[in-house]
Amino acid sequence: MSNMIVLPLIVPVITAILLVFLKEHVTLQRIISLLTLSFIIIISVILLVEIQEQGVMRIDFSGWAPPFGISFVADSFATLLVLVANIVALICMLYTIFTMELRYEKMYFYPFTLLMIAGVNGSFLTGDIFNLFVCFEVMLLASYALISLGGEKIQLREALKYVLINIVASWIFLVALAFLYGTVGTLNMAHISIRVMEAGANPLITTVALIFLIVFSLKAGLLLFFWLPGSYSVPPTAIAALFAALLTKVGMYALVRTFTLLFPNNPEVTHTALGIMAGITIIAGCIGALSGRDVRTIASYNVLIGVGFIIIGLAVGTESALQGVIYYLMHDMVAKAMLFLAVGMMIYVTGETVIDKMSGLIRNYPFFGWLFFIAMCSLAGIPPLSGFLGKVLIGQGAIEGGHFVLLGLGFFSSLIVLYSLLRIFLSSFFGETIISLEDEKPLPKRILLPLTLLAVCTIGLGIGAEKLAPFVTDAAETLYTPSIYIDAVLDGQQWQGEVNK
Amino acid sequence: MKINDVILRTITKVVVFIILTLGVYLFFAGHHAPGGGFIGGLVLASGVVLLYLAYDIETVHKGMPFDFKKVAALGVLLATGTAIGSLFFDVPFLTQAHTYIDAPIFGKMGFSTVTIFEAGVALTVVGVVVTIILSISEDE
């Protein structure tokens, strides 16, 4: 028992509520939000270290033992994601503080962001699939408010689409949960895993698994991504960066959890479907990124390429591929936040969104230009930045598993990512400058600070991969061998007896 | 044009008390029988909404000068507060405590921290429902 596991969920909820009472005190709101996120970062580091010592940890709410009560389970995979998600959120929040208009900040921006973070953390840590649904809803409700914050016409149009698609997805989620409960009679993830293993390749369970695949694909932007490019390009920069960094990752986390722990029973169907969907997502993402002329559109389609690439790792499913998935998920959070912040700043300094209308930015803002260059290299996977190791490991896994088509698509997509961003770089940063020195909008150093911090993160994740290796190896091992997770949740012997019976 | 709603207003004055009493009853009944914070809160909120329907917003607001957004926030704070209270006693998150007291007139009475949690839920429901109804009714 360790109550620490629940802190990443409950602390942001409580501070978010406190901030509601401090609506007019913006400075106080900023300080409390930053402190909350820093606190969670510290907690998740402590958790990570403890997990290495004593294995997967769990807390049963109210002391109701699993599978009857709701538990939070912290394994290395979940905790690593909590850690990186909160670091990225902290940096995005810094950007908000430096750039957001006061009227946005007074419209409950900080409470909603903290509630969204609470939902994200809860989704990562929960060990109960119905609780996963609840945490998803907490996150989504907050994101509905954030996407329409400001209430501009185009925002309302996209928000309506976003809300409708997510409500439909949540409804399917609920139906899938009902089917699952009707089929296996439990909602605890570890217990579901046992029951599914007992049943083997049961067609009913495979159907349920496919419904979950549809639900989480809608949330993650895997194949069913038609809502994503529009929704991610309308909110203010800091919010768009948070969405791009966190929301699709939660969907992907759910996919990884579902198809490693819950339904590993019929990979011929489920993992093949995942592979095909990942392939199509990458192709569509590449087409979108190549054809876009608006920087925000190009950035949004880059999100999709990332989603497809990570799911390739899941579809391959070998241990090294799963390590790659974990590295790449962490990298993608940092790199996508960086890309969206950079794109937002380009729009801020030029007032344009189309790449051809911007030119020579690097002459006016040299440091910003090179930061964009780092983001580009990181997304393309150039060593020693963070994208490299994930790509290598997923590629290695694909070769081991003999998935050469997916391998080819994955590495081909890296080239397209590089090309699409290079196009922005060449046409907007290089060339003749269009902004004369008098018209140059000042770009204070503090606005560049969040972007610099993210650059430090991506370099750190790349160079410090060696230091992270024990955590990632442990996380991948837990994913690859579900019995480690199940043992920790259901106390060892008890469940094996049930299987033997 | 002023609508003649004398009947609605007169009945409301009586019925609101019945609704509020039922709400409180359901709230306490929820400890062992159907009911509880959510249902009690919904019934209480329906009483408030009926007041808003029968009278105008200003009149009701004079009687109940609360910002219902803050009522909801207070509710969540109360509920999460009892939830993390358990952290300080080194028991699992959300653990509730209860005890029985022999009171002079009422006899054996049960007290439980879950009631505070439920009160938080009820306040949240009241706050949220009234806020939703009020924001729909405001036209710009």
From TrEMBL, chain A:
It is found in: Cell membrane; Membrane. Its EC number is 1.6.5.3. InterPro entries: CPA3_Na-H_Antiporter_D, NADH_UbQ_OxRdtase, ND/Mrp_TM. The keyword Membrane applies. It is an enzyme of class 1 (oxidoreductase). The chain crosses the membrane at residues 6-22, 31-49, 69-95, 107-124, 130-150, 162-184, 204-228, 240-263, 269-291, 298-317, 337-355, 367-385, 405-426, 447-465. Signal peptide: none annotated. Belongs to the CPA3 antiporters (TC 2.A.63) subunit D family. NCBIfam families: PRK07691.1 (NF005818), PRK12663.1 (NF009306). This is Monovalent cation/H+ antiporter subunit D. It comes from Lysinibacillus boronitolerans JCM 21713 = 10a = NBRC 103108.
Automatic annotation (TrEMBL), chain B:
Residues 7-131 form the Na+/H+ antiporter MnhB subunit-related protein domain. The chain crosses the membrane at residues 7-29, 35-55, 71-89, 109-136. It comes from the Bacteria. Signal peptide: none annotated. It is found in: Cell membrane. It holds the Pfam family MnhB. InterPro entries: CPA3_antiporter_subunitB (IPR050622), MnhB (IPR007182). It is a multi-pass membrane protein. The keyword Cell membrane applies. Keywords: Cell membrane, Membrane, Transmembrane, Transmembrane helix. Belongs to the CPA3 antiporters (TC 2.A.63) subunit B family. This is Monovalent cation/H+ antiporter subunit B. It comes from Lysinibacillus boronitolerans JCM 21713 = 10a = NBRC 103108. The lineage of its organism: Bacteria, Bacillati, Bacillota, Bacilli, Bacillales.
